[in-house]
Design goal:
Elements: H1 2-12, H2 25-38, H3 40-59, E1 70-73, E2 82-87, E3 90-100, E4 108-114, E5 120-126, E6 132-134, E7 150-161, H4 167-170, H5 173-200, H6 207-236, H7 245-271, H8 274-278, H9 280-292, H10 299-312
Parallel strand pairs: 1-4
Antiparallel strand pairs: 2-3, 3-7, 4-5, 5-7, 6-7
Helix pairs in contact: 1-3, 2-3, 2-5, 3-5, 5-6, 5-7, 5-9, 6-7, 7-10
């Protein structure tokens, strides 16, 4: 189902989004939220594809071609290392990359790997090459199970450098992409709250359910307002000359994460176990979003936001 939906989005042009910082960032993030409201898992993979397009535009990589689905595999692990080595004028990747979403769905990926100098480089890889092999899945949670996230083994897989070493993390667009993830969280939170909005239209709705809905609605509105404010800031300073991109991204993600928690918790409190047990679509949305939002590092991210906010005063 996820692969079919992604292909339909690709073929229809639904993933041809404005680049961040080009004056239409709000429309970009609004569209990502809309996709997540339709399907959380497919939108998570779609966001990665659109982020890959933006990264290559920013760092001078090649353009994507019709029918290609790109991933961005940048997770690092001390137990699994992917290395990049130059061999006869070409770059080859060897080792294992962890947390590769869309491992069996994507046709291409931007992959981070360690250079001989110890620096972190970014590389474009055609995943259809014989030297790229997704490993058996160790996923045990029903949430985001359809994202096909697993480790991938690279054995002399050819790769094309994208940008300079270290530039993947240092570029302004890194934080723009982080906000794109939050846009997906927000759209998914709206879908989780849909049964609660529907309950409010019932004549027999109780005051507690309405109170829960009021809190959820306010949190979702705060997330939407934060995304709009962040989009304006990004369009006004696309190259991060003010040095505020990280703080804006962390602030936006924190506000949206709160909206996600409010939507999941209060919808459950108001409606009880019935939709979780008898509405398969709702139960899946809750499970998927519960896992997806854990891309946030919770208090660690808040600590860093606090440091940035304090330094900005």
């Amino acid at each position: 189902m996820t692969g079919g939906l992604l292909n339909r989005w690709l073929d229809s042009g639904a993933l041809d989004l404005p680049l961040p910082g080009g004056g239409e960032t709000a429309r970009r993030w609004h569209r990502l939220a809309e996709l997540a409201q339709v399907d959380v898992v497919a939108a998570r993979l779609a966001e990665a594809h659109t982020d890959a397009v933006a990264i290559m535009a920013e760092l001078g990589g090649s353009d994507t071609k019709p029918g290609q689905l790109w991933g961005v595999w940048a997770a690092e692990s001390r137990d699994a290392v992917l290395s990049a080595r130059g061999e006869q004028g070409a770059t080859m990747l060897n080792g294992t990359k962890v947390w590769c979403s869309g491992a069996g769905l994507c046709t291409h990926a931007l992959v981070t790997a360690r250079l001989e100098s110890g620096e972190r480089g970014l590389f474009a890889v055609d995943l259809r090459h014989a030297g790229v092999r997704p490993l058996p899945s160790g996923w045990r949670n029903v949430g985001m199970a359809e994202s096909d996230t697993r480790s991938v083994q690279f054995s002399n897989a050819p790769a094309v450098p994208v940008g300079l070493p270290g530039e993947y993390l240092s570029r302004p667009g890194f934080w723009h992409g982080a906000i794109g993830v939050a846009a997906c969280w927000l759209g998914a939170a709206r879908s989780v709250a849909e049964p609660l909005y529907g309950r409010a239209a019932d004549d027999s709705v109780d005051p507690h359910a309405l109170a829960h809905l009021g809190a959820v609605d306010a949190a979702l509105a705060a997330g939407e307002a934060m995304l709009l404010s962040a989009a304006t800031a990004v369009d006004n300073d696309p190259f991060n000359r003010k040095g505020e991109a990280e703080m804006i991204a962390r602030r936006t993600r924190a506000v949206v994460e709160t909206a996600v928690e409010e939507a999941i918790t209060r919808t459950g409190h108001a409606l009880g176990p019935v939709p979780l047990c008898q509405d398969a679509q709702h139960a899946k949305r809750v499970a998927d979003l519960t896992v997806y939002v854990r891309q946030s590092h919770a208090e660690r991210d808040l600590e860093q936001l606090g440091r940035l906010a304090g330094a900005a005063r």
